Amino acid sequence: MAKLSRWCATAVLLACTGHAAAASGDAGRGMRLYLDGVRSDGTALHATGANGIARTGRDAACAACHRRSGFGSAEGPFGVRPVTSVDLFQDRPPVAASARIAHQLGKPPRPPYDSASFATALAAGIDSAGRPLGALMPRYTLTAAELRDLEAYLRTLGARPAEGVDGEDIHLATVIQPGVAPARRAALLGVLEAFVRDKNAAVRSEPARRRAGAMRMQRAYRRWVLHIWELDGAPAGWAGQLDALYRAQPVFALVSGLGDEDWAPIQAFSERRRLPCILPVARLPAVMEPNFYTLYFSGGVLLEAEGLGRHLAAAGRGRVTQLYREDDAVARAAAAILRRTLAGSAVVLSDQPLRFAPQAAMRAGADGDTAVVAWLNAPDLARMVPPAAPAWLAQSLLPEPPPPGWERAQRVSRWEPDAQRAARLRRVRDWLSARKIAPGDEEVQVDAWFAMAMLGEALMHMMDSFSREYLLEQVEHGINVTVLPAMYPHLSVGRDMRVAAHEVYLGQDSDPLSLSEPADVPAAERAPRHTAEEKP
Description:
By secondary structure, the protein is α/β, with parallel strands linked by helices. It contains 19 helices and 19 strands. Helix 14 (329-342) links the parallel strand 13 (318-325) and strand 14 (347-354). It starts with 5 loop residues before the first helix and ends in a 22-residue tail after the last strand.
């Protein structure tokens, strides 16, 4: 088959020429060595780096330089080569579409590694051609069993495409939580479906361009197939629904998505399946949970709560009352962050939890307040008497203008006022207009467009290396260098960081307050987590 990729060639090669030593190793133990720097006896891995610097544990792990994907990295002028199965152990070049492309690829830079040369590279820094490796390559002292384990794992790393990809299609899914407003759902799907139509319309000519043009760019020519995964019922049942959807049609990645509830169950599913979830529009991202596979725009309302807390703490003494509905997990989480951020400051925080829908005669706050924070939506605010003290409202919970009586309230937001971002978002607005997509929820539309654009850029540069971990690494890089507009004026993602925006805007201030990732929330104050222990 003309489109047979190098993955197929490698799979056949490894099946036919597998090494007995590697076959006897334990890939699971090898993965712990590679990712975490943990030896088979549970102790930390040790290595000697450049200039004799000792490295231990995660700092000594292979993934620290070669990344989780095994596709390598770069830092300034220094490059770290890939260590996937294809790159280390193949003994013939990948299948090329033409003789000209085969010439472009050239011959392998060195012979393939076997078990002996692999051990020599780790212990002495000598490659399979007998040449010294770069000075940045650490030196390791491993047992024979550990060498077999690590080799066994590396022979699985990138040895075949991830599920959800075949010779013609890349399957993608977007997840929509129950209870999302129909207008927001329509805003999301209108953008995603139009983007996929544009992408697939160009696929027909791309194989011809591949034969005619340069080889090393834009190799990932596949048709995009978008699946809409809509959840229903309580969060406790979402894991089973997601597993059933995945079994019916595995996908390569989740892209965008929409939810007004805690995103933790979806994040837990992504972790179990090792399935990237790229930039969902989530009101309550699960940023306090350990996570690799879900990349968020920001901490959402948690980021706003931390920024407001720092502002109030810096303002000095006084009493602040915060209101929130006890049956709203998002509002409870915001209140917990504000409580944590103000702890130890001169500000006295008073909680006013609402156990039922506010009544029209209910007053927000109390006499003597220096500020009132209302983690409430528009209908709840409309039922309450506004406070005499300055009030603060959250953009995440109140995207629309406030109800009558609350016009003087200040906003804490993850992006600047509309008048300031209009010029920056012109490109997206023109894109929507050209496709006759009516203006809707702008946050949803712009974030969905940006997520799809980042996915497209990442897939283009991955060539035919369909590794989910490599996809996430490419998206990380793309966010840092792109000139494409997002709702957020500044996005930045460090290595393995899973939140891209770290600024909030307070009131009418034109300068944002820059924050680190949102503060943790005590387990007792978090919304319940619904995770499943079963393995995929």
